[in-house]
Fold:
Amino acid sequence: MLRNTMSSPPPDPASFARLFVGLWPNDAVRDAVHAHAECWLWTASSRRVPRSKLHMTLHFLGGVPRERVPELVRGLDVPFVPFALQLDRGEVWSNQVAVLQPRTTPNALTALHGRLQIALGQLQQPTAREALEPHVTLARKAKGARSPPLLEPITWRVDGYALIESLPSAGYRVLFEYP
Structure:
């Protein structure tokens, strides 16, 4: 008896969107973070994140079928209270990622993250990581890079969050902004 041992073809990448829910900074915050990153002592191996891609991921969803996007847009509309975020600590993590992060996580950010986690659970949408570790990635492969002391915190007035698509070669596209 002959058996078909060929696997099914991989799904068409165009039918999936690589998504995350995050905080999308305005130009003033993006400029301040970029200016701070310019003051680091970078190693030759460091791969800086372009200014246009600076953001804070709250939940990474990964590849999601495009037909689910409208359902996600509706389901991720959770109560939101504006808050201030102070970015005041730069460091290089053990995975060689250079970040700028808050010393203290605002309660409103923790609450927003939790409400979004519940909404994603109700949508049966898995995420890559459940724990909140607020940061803006400045560079990858940054082992040995050194952060300057941050003389004055970067104040980010957070007025909303967004559902964002990571495009293969063109950066990011904000699909929907909340509230």
